[in-house]
Amino acid sequence: MAALRLPRAPASAVLAGAAVPHSLPTPAQPPPVRVPNTAHLNALLTAYGRHGRIRDAQELFDRMPRRDVISWTALLTAYADAGDPASARLVFDDMPRRNAASWNALLTLYLRAGGGRFTAAAHALFAKMPAKNAVSYGAMITGLARAGMLREAQAVYGEMPRQWRDPVGSSAIITAYLRAGELGMALRVFDGMAVRDIFSWSAMVDGLCKYGTVSEARKLFEAMPERNVVSWTSMIRGYVKRGMRRDAILLFLDMRNEGVQVNAMTLSVVLDACSEASLVREGIQIHGLIIAMGFEMNVFLGDSIIIMYSRFGLMVNARRVFSFMEQKDIVSWNSLITGYVQNNMIEDAHVFFKLMPERDAVSWTSMVVGFANRGWMREATDLFEQMPGKDGVAWAAVISSFVANGDYVNAVRWFRRMSKEGCEPNTVAFSCLLSALGSLAMVNRGLQAHAYAVYMGWVFDSAVHTSLVTMYAKCGRLAEAHLVFSSISNPSLIATNSMITAFAQHGLAEDALELFNRMQNDGQRPNHVTFLGILTACARAGLVQQGYNYFETMRSVYGIEPNPDHYTCMVDLLGRAGFLAEALEMINWMPQKDYPDAWAALLSSSSVHSNLAFAKLAAQKLLEMDPYNATAYTVLSNLLSSAGMKDDEEMLKIAQMSNMASKSPAYSLIIQEKTNTD
């Protein structure tokens, strides 16, 4: 920007462009020149700045007959609010006199701009300030914290005169501590405050929601002498983040009953609660409230509503909201496309992808994932190749898609390609690599990957250490898997589930059940994956009664509805123990009775116990679902042969069909190991 021209207009000057009275015959003397009121012009100058009308503000300033320190500060603040440090500095340097507001305006601008250069400039400016006030210290502490310079922020707080610390300075350092995750230090400052304002209370409520317990946050929230929309929203968001969505909705209703005016952020958080908890009726009601309050044109809320309806699977509603939005940003387009992908409506997603006025990495990655979810890996990789500026998320999406489609070899190859093409691997892509290596039983490569994770400092990442446990377990290295798991001070539920599953698959039911009890004592609540591991452990160890008890408690104690995989585990448990009639009865209890894995488990158990009747029934059901199921033909053929029915017409027919059944091609891991030696 060109250097500013800031003329010093004499006090007698009139506004530039105003008409100068001509001499008139009468009266003899011209009327006196009317000088505009400076206070009025300062107010207009401030209004221009607040509305972003910088050119109008500068022109008005240039035409002002008299300027005081408020005029200069108003212009400086206008440039500061517009994010123009260079012009703001020119105004600051040209000021004949400065007050605390002008120093604070430039200081805040530098700190808001961020980056090493502006933070250093803010430091220098702060040191030169002739008279600092509470706002100066508060701005400096907040800016340093935002730049990640917590120790420097602490030093400024220590220099701050005690009479100014509360509430502005203390609120700023509390926010700084919470930004760094240091809840204890934040609580210490908060407890020591002589005067607290609504900002310090709200900050601590938010901090306790993030780093403490929701119950502690709620207790502090109830103790607040006054609450505003920020404090209410912080508490509601805390419930949502901890998965307590119904509590969030109830608190929102309390907020409404107390007459607190909600804002767009509050409504967005409540929409998230409805969508994550599948509260369709409540979500539709919140949408109606948004329309009634006149927020329907808010782009931010429109995006949230699209996401909510997408999660509900109501894509007609999501598309209708999108169509009625007068203004759409790239998030709006991405939300709709991602919704179509999540609901397996890939063709619709592709139509809108092609219609997008602009695309970003999220747009491209969503479409790549959509193709991959259909198993169209060629289309997914072709689209990926067309993507401009491939980032780590996009690479991870492709690698993850290969793993999801069972193509572990290409998952490994694409991870190597990611590194070769200069894209820094991330923990998501690395976790996918570990999963692929485990599925390929490439333990030597897995050991190398583990060493790389240590070098990168990733071993404490939840996804990485969980993948390491799973990788070692799949490779049959249970000792290493348990060693990695034991090194985690606070294992996630996913890591615990991986270890339970590993114990179960290796026949160590006692260890799996012991870990199951320990996780509950440590406050972890099991989920559906946990029970899959436990039921598998009981099936492998023949613990029929215990397995049945665990299955019953899923619904009655933990509120988990068994899915077809849980029923299949029970069929396997009963069948292995010889209770074939009970296993068949379990299948008949299933909501989805045509689940192939359940009938395959019954067929396998029938084969083990040489029960031809149950084997015929299971094979018949499998062949109804897949007439070319080679396993069904082979197992039944072997049973008939063992029963001495080689000449039986039925045996000949089955043998004939068995030869016709297609079988999957074999794959040699030895070849893979030889071709990937570098």
What are the salient characteristics of this protein?
disordered C terminus; disordered N terminus; 678 residues; mainly alpha
Explain the overall architecture:
It contains 39 helices and no strands. It has helices spanning 38-50, 54-63, 69-81, 85-94, 100-113, 115-128, 134-146, 150-159, 162-179, 183-192, 198-211, 214-223, 229-241, 245-257, 264-276, 280-292, 299-312, 315-324, 330-342, 346-355, 361-373, 377-386, 392-404, 408-420, 427-439, 443-456, 462-474, 478-486, 493-505, 509-521, 528-541, 544-556, 564-576, 580-589, 596-608, 612-625, 630-642, 649-660, 669-675. With 678 residues, it is mainly alpha-helical. The model is unreliable at 1-26 and 662-678 (pLDDT under 50).
Topology overview:
Layout: H1 38-50, H2 54-63, H3 69-81, H4 85-94, H5 100-113, H6 115-128, H7 134-146, H8 150-159, H9 162-179, H10 183-192, H11 198-211, H12 214-223, H13 229-241, H14 245-257, H15 264-276, H16 280-292, H17 299-312, H18 315-324, H19 330-342, H20 346-355, H21 361-373, H22 377-386, H23 392-404, H24 408-420, H25 427-439, H26 443-456, H27 462-474, H28 478-486, H29 493-505, H30 509-521, H31 528-541, H32 544-556, H33 564-576, H34 580-589, H35 596-608, H36 612-625, H37 630-642, H38 649-660, H39 669-675
Helix pairs in contact: 1-2, 1-3, 2-3, 3-4, 3-5, 4-5, 5-6, 5-7, 6-7, 7-8, 7-9, 8-9, 9-10, 9-11, 10-11, 11-12, 11-13, 12-13, 13-14, 13-15, 14-15, 15-16, 15-17, 16-17, 17-18, 17-19, 18-19, 19-20, 19-21, 20-21, 21-22, 21-23, 22-23, 23-24, 23-25, 24-25, 25-26, 25-27, 26-27, 27-28, ...
